[in-house]
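Support reply, case 0932

Customer input (verbatim):
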Amino acid sequence: MTETRGWQAPDTATAGVLAVGLAATVALNWPGHLSFDSAEQLLEGRVGVYNTWHPPVMAWLLGLFDRAVAGAGLFVVFDAALAFGALGALLFLGRARWLSAAIALGVVLLPQMLLYQGIVWKDVLFADAAVGGFTALALVAARWHRGGEAATVAMLLLLSLAALTRQNGVLLLPFAAGGLTWIARLCGNSWRTALVAGGGSLAVMLTIVGAATLALDRRSDGASGPSEQLHVLALYDLSGATALDRGLNLEALAHADPDVATAIRTRGARLWTPLRNDPIMSDPAVQNAMAQQADPDALISQWRALIRDHPWTYLRVRVADFLEVFATPEIAGARPVFTGIEAPTSLLGPLHIAPRKDARDRALDRYGKALFGTPVWSHPVFALAGLASLIVLLRRRRPADIAMAALLAGAFAFTASFFVISISCDYRYLYALDLSALIALFYLSLDTREAL
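Our regenerated output:
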């Protein structure tokens, strides 16, 4: 671990770039960009009743900030402060180089920061909380023998928030606990002490997540979002499998729920595309069949039978779906750029918010779309950068390095989970991968000579 030895010109320049970047990002995007999901969650937060299709912590946070200043503006400030704060906190882990200032400027100017930090999406909150939590873990490592209680609390709270923000975000927690265990060993603790530290942190985070989930569910609208999402995934996979294998046997579903089986064969298979599930779910015949399911469990049973009895067909469907969300071969179809306020009046009316597409929105939209077809919008490019950083970190193996390595490993695991659950290719779903790679690259720039 390299100690910061006085505040020098590169440190000042780098900190200045980040401070100006935060201010510019908030100013350019204030009071935030709201899509349908964003407006729905803001309204839920305002009335205090949550739809569990989305993790309710996002709506709760929006409601919390909305009570202070109406709208999503303060939430945007909070979100951006997490991301820029993580970058700034890394300056306490080593001395900045002029390269650090250059990388910081490049990161700030990327749409992943300049635009995305102003979009009110759970994917952005998840990514920001994740990088903030692992940065706090790096500070814990740096202050292991000098008191890192505040950083420890920040790590536990931010990673718990990440796990609450996305259902598959819980995958980050074992990587954080494993990283803490490894850090404890590198700092001279016994295996027993290290395992207690790592296991204890995992238990605390799971407890926070569990308690918060129970508390938030008490204010839900009574619907079961996860159950509905599982049925959508099953319908999507079965439609894809039937499209790829027209002779696929759906006998069990046809016997228990013939209308759903017919809808899959006649409409689902025809409408299936690895791009997204919208064409299927918006089809009237499919909607009618799903709304009148005779046996909801039959669809899940048929899906499990597909995985068990036709694994190759299932894998073909999943590979096609995952390649769309990860490689985004049709970047425009992945909808990476969103600006303004677009939602139905049924949501915006009660919020007293008008639709918006002003000059700033149009300028940001042009900026983001001008970079289509470049590495800026390529998850594989960020994944390669993250992999290279991970190799350097694991070879160097300083205590703080392990925290950054755990961040990248967790981001890769989160990305891999979409092989199983992806139903759409929206670019934002893997935003956490991009941001994690950027954080790791900036961290390595703080100690260039020893990183190479």
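We compared this against your earlier run and they match. Two observations from our side: The chain has two domains: 9-220+350-451, 225-306. The radius of gyration is 23 Å. Please reopen the case if you see a mismatch on your end.
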